[in-house]
Amino acid sequence: MEMKKRISLELRNRTPAEVEELVVDNCRTSDGEVEGLTDDFKELEFLSMVNVGLTSLAKLPSLPKLRKLELSDNNISGHLETLSEKCPC
Fold it and tell me: What residue stretch is flagged as signal peptide (predicted)?
């Protein structure tokens, strides 16, 4: 399943602004980038993207309340400075 579709299913009739926890483990990204996440997820505190095929975090949106991020089993090789810019906590 593609990451974008999985995120829309995980919303479960909620708006992105209402989501505090999001788990999209084992889905697939089509280009190695974060897909389907937007700045609208402003209340997100926990995000898990384990084994989704990520190679970069360049498209990670601003997530000001994020406290825990799980990215194991990916092949991320750049743009790690994005974490400090987009997730300041």
Answer: none
